[in-house]
Predict the 3D structure of the following.
Amino acid sequence: MTPAVFLDRDGTLNEDVGHLDRLERLTLFPFAIDAVRLLNQAGFRVVVVTNQGGVAAGMVEERFVIELHDLLQRRFAAGGATIARIYHCPHDPDAAIPAYRRTCDCRKPAAGMLRRAATDLDLDLSRSYMIGDKWTDVAVATQVGATGMLVRTGYGVTQEARPNRPPDAVVVDDVMAATVRILEQTGSL
């Protein structure tokens, strides 16, 4: 079984622009591809897990989300980095679109996307990491025995300032700083 680094999408790999609904609004952080390439070189499978509430709200078509994820994988591949798989959750218990109105096990902070990836890709969750810009991302890691890290990009600075942060929370500046920390902890640097 292989360890993985799970990455949130908006605010972690790319600028959070609200509901990303057009390809031209996608702006990757300049260090994102390099961070994923370094993780790949250290033997980690990189998997993106993202809540896409805009689908449930009727603001973004699910087919666009899939198109965007195909583009992301191509961009990373062009930079020598591999995203093994991208999972998204389009559900919301209060969705405007009835087809997406449900309580599911995939909407973070639930851990369904990580568990599904572990099964699909033969991943060792106990040796894995989850990086995101919200405490819900860190909570997902805790549920599966992985290590969670909050980045200060996206909503991270606001989240860090909240009084009820998880005990022993790891907070870093961005996904590259998280990558360096992972590589140091695993002796891959």
